[in-house]
Amino acid sequence: MALSDTTVRQARITGNDYTIGDTDGLALNVTARGGKIWRFRYYWAGVQKRMSLGSYPQISLKEARARRDEARALVAQGINPYEHRKQQRRAIRFAAEHTFEAVFNQWVEFRRLSLKEGRQSTLSQILRIFNKDVLPTLGGRSIYDINRHDLLDLLSRIEQRKALTTAEKCRTWFNQLFRYALVKIEGLEHNPASDLDVVALPKPPVTHNPFLRMDELPALMVALRKYGGASQTRLGLRLLLLTGVRTGELRLATPDQFDLEKRLWVIPAEVVKQLQLAMRKPGKQTQNVPPYIVPLSVQALEIVRHMLDQVVPAQRYLFAHRSDLSKRISENTLNGALRRMGYADQLTGHGMRATISTALNEIGYPKVWVDAQLSHADPDKVSAAYNHAEYVEQRRTMMQDWANRLDLWGQGQLKAASSPLTIRLEGAASLPSFENASANSIQFNGAFPVTAVSMPKASVSNEPALIVPHQSPVVPLSVPTEKPHKSHVSDIQRERAEMLAIYEAASNLPLLVFAKLAGKSRDQINRDIKARRLLSLSLGNRGQRIPDWQLDPLRHKLVLTALARIPDVDAWRLYRTVCEPHERLRGRSPIDVLTLENFDVTARIVCSVLGRT
């Protein structure tokens, strides 16, 4: 029988709990103390369930029936109304707890683990841009409520003010933030920041830092000598021009980075842009990333000595801030000096690197030397981990020649300073770019003879003397053949190249290809590799390669035998042992001669070579 408002209102207290039924599972539960609670009974998976719909009189009979009908509709759709309500309440609670700003702060703390602090660091840019452009709009909103159109609207406002680079960075950071939130925030099911780049406004062509050609260097050297600003700024610009380091590396230079005896500037990896990327790679040990080694010419060494003589106890950096010795020189100081010298839109501190690179390549120095001097990324991924610390002595000669040429340009000797250089290194493997050198190739073995002369009258008396060459930098000097020049290809590079050739051989298959041929899943193959039931080769982060001859049961058995007898054997050593010819096998490899009849003998030979019988 259906309830009425009067029946509900007049339900008496009896001292015991009792229930008054309505229709379609709705009932009023009257407690011993007089409380009145609406209950809804329903069946779920064959079991009767009960859920509360609220208390009377806060929820009237009409409202209780409406809630009952909503619950029945959910049951009809295959949805448990009780669990559905729990999820709704949880979503409301999460929405209040997980605002965009709260999630952003969590993400920033996570990023701090891998990003360094600093005025122009990625972390500082994230904080500055989000505080200015993002948090005022999205900060107080629930992370669950933010959709793609919200992000597009915000990005379009940034693009409208022509800040296209900022918009590009925001798209990247939005995607990273929401990917983080998908894993960390319960109930978040999609990433609204994906594919935002599809509708991004195209960026204008990249404008590289302006730089000078060789015929413009004489005027620069004169302007640099006549610069009337701070002595420290002039010397900083000259040191940039003598070494090719980045302005950030110069500003972060500390006295302990310089080895005056060896004439080296050893810049820690965490300061160098290219090496920072290497340090962030997963699994890369920071201490295993070598520093950026910069050989110093005589002229550069004189500047460093002069600056070191000026260092005081409170000073942390070689080029200190004018008003605070504990801080480094401002990032705008060097570029501001160039503007005052008349080089606005013609040259920047970073553009000096392009100036040096262009000039040295035009003069005729090997590109690998120039790239190593400038710490450029090596496109050869196999040798990239070594090249930035190589060619030190070759670069020392090159940079001494460059310093001498700068002095010649400053003295107006344009022809001598701009003369091309052809190099033949006796006793060393020919470099590809010099194989067609003429018979008149010039030989040299080190720095050119130099003498010190006094600075022009316009210079400051306590600055280092200008070093000028005694003669033209292109001087024929013989190299004794009994002391051949060291090849620029190291043993480590050669070994890595050989390993790469083996790794990429057609017989060594990618994991998925091998799995398909073996009739197994990728996970099964991975488990076999991990359990040492399968020989696989790895090289850096290139993934696994598996020799296809392991598809042959007998050859696979040979590998299993070796792995069982020598559990700690290196995969590359085992591969070479079974694939390379052996004298005891008449110059053939174990996998080539292997048969059922000679299996035991072949296995003993393999294990003997590996170090056990």
TrEMBL record:
InterPro entries noted in UniProt: CB (IPR044068), DNA_brk_join_enz (IPR011010), Integrase-like_cat_sf (IPR013762), Integrase_catalytic (IPR002104), Integrase_DNA-bd_sf (IPR038488), Integrase_DNA_bind_dom (IPR025166), Integrase_recombinase_N (IPR010998), Phage_int_M (IPR053876)
Domain Core-binding (CB) as annotated: residue spans: 98-182
Keywords of this entry: DNA integration, DNA recombination, DNA-binding
Gene Ontology MF: a single term: DNA binding
TM segment ranges: none
GO process terms (BP): DNA integration; DNA recombination
Ranges for domain Tyr recombinase: 207-399
Family: Belongs to the 'phage' integrase family.
Designated name of the protein: Integrase
